[in-house]
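Friendly challenge for the regulars: who can give me the structure tokens for this chain first? No prize, just bragging rights.
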Amino acid sequence: MTQNTMTFNNKKDDREEYRKYIKEWIKNNPEKQKQYYRIYKYYSNLTNPIIKECIVCGKKFETRQYHKKYCSIGCKKKMHNLKKDYKRRKKGFYLMIPNVFPSNIAVDMHHIHPNLPFVVPLPRKLHQENNGNLIEHLNTANEWVEFYYNIDVNKFLNLGGANK
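First reply, four minutes later:
Bragging rights claimed.
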């Protein structure tokens, strides 16, 4: 059994012949064409990386997986430990905004209300101001949230003020 093969040069005259040959081959081999398309689609995803931003540290990284959120295993473990700690304390953890601060600044996650799971990243020094009094702590930290992220927490929560 002989196969119908043709050799082509990269000249302009041969392009029409090549296109005709490809169309004819697709008509004669529809199953193989589907298989080649699946293989091409798979390998094109492997060879074309996506540039994403890590939701923990903010670094840009290349990945070939659409669902990947973390740049490294360390960032993934860090977020897992945060969520586990908040779950243990029965506070909940819902990250409203990803971390926008550079990696050299220590960041804490601030609950915008003590009974709700909504969390926003804030620099550690700002977050640890007024740690003795909960109402003062919430007011000052929420002012910083409004300054950095332009989110009015009281409007978001439909409250007149924090813990009135």
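Helices lie at 12-28, 30-47, 73-88, 124-127, 134-149, 153-157. The chain has a mean pLDDT of 78. Your move, everyone else.
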